[in-house]
Amino acid sequence: xxxxxxxxxxxxxxxxxxxxxxxxxxxxxxxxxxxxxxxxxxxxxxxxxxxxxxxxxxxxxxxxxxxxxxxxxxxxxxxxxxxxxxxxxxxxxxxxxxxxxxxxxxxxxxxxxxxxxxxxxxxxxxxxxxxxxxxxxxxxxxxxxxxxxxxxxxxxxxxxxxxxxxxxxxxxxxxxxxxxxxxxxxxxxxxxxxxxxxxxxxxxxxxxxxxxxxxxxxxxxxxxxxxxxxxxxxxxxxxxxxxxxxxxxxxxxxxxxxxxxxxxxxxxxxxxxxxxxxxxxxxxxxxxxxxxxxxxxxxxxxxxxxxxxxxxxxxxxxxxxxxxxxxxxxxxxxxxxxxx
Length: 340
Ligand code: BT5
Fold this sequence. Notes:
This protein has 340 residues and is α+β, with helices and mostly antiparallel strands. Helix content is 30%, strand content 27%. The chain is elongated. Biotinyl-5-AMP binds next to helix 5, strand 5, strand 8 and strand 9.
């Protein structure tokens, strides 16, 4: 490791570190430490100095550092094992390969992914500035409850985006988080854009869940200029008007995810408030939609969302259909069901 990397890792927790301690760790003089600090300042790190206390990293070009995340993380088990990579193919692929020997709640993070993936092997663009994160979960729950995990993570994301970025997030069935505005009647205004996608993969026996890997892809501070317009994508930075602190957002997501996952692994009663919140954040409910699933294409009104995550579609030609998985397109113009 270069001296500057060692200094950054010593300062990573955000606490004061004396010049003497740094000089000792690096086996260089205190004057040489000062020189390295000057170089880091030129690279955009805001490092405070005090003759009595030493040095403290006030802010930096928003690079992720495990010490910085673990320093702010208030969880019992979520994210306590944290692996951060500069670049990987896909954090989900890495997480799946490490899942057997990893603890419940282990997290894989990467600054960039070369083969980020969405559902059905669709590509997921993962440039620098985003949050590309996979969580390994080994919950004690029947296989039939596994959709609760996606619902729990969606709620955790909405809560965290609102707390850290001050933005209203909506959930598009089944696995997208959008940023948008509600109109006077509380309906989403139809101009929402995708800021995050969730990819859940798992290993299970006939009736037993071995592990679940939940991949979260969040366009936090990414440059959107290379994204095709038809993706209808946005970033938190664009919506908020300023870059969001990624480490703070990651901590908040892991804290909210721990709470929500514990409820998901509990009784129906435990899960009730997560379900209600998931349903109330839905940008799909009461909208005209086109669904493509294994059963083909269907058009209709998204009439309800069930406790197990299923979408209840009132079909165009009459009748109802219950859909557990599929792709959903919100039809424009933004048509909502007439208020009953
Ligand atoms: C998803 O798939 O939305 C799930 C994405 C999950 C990504 C995370 S990142 C960490 C972990 N590691 C991985 O390799 N994956 C997970 P889906 O609903 O199939 O949406 C994919 C579609 O979204 C693509 O076909 C594009 O149209 C569009 N897309 C691709 N990259 C995007 C981005 N960064 N932001 C918004 N839309 C994107």
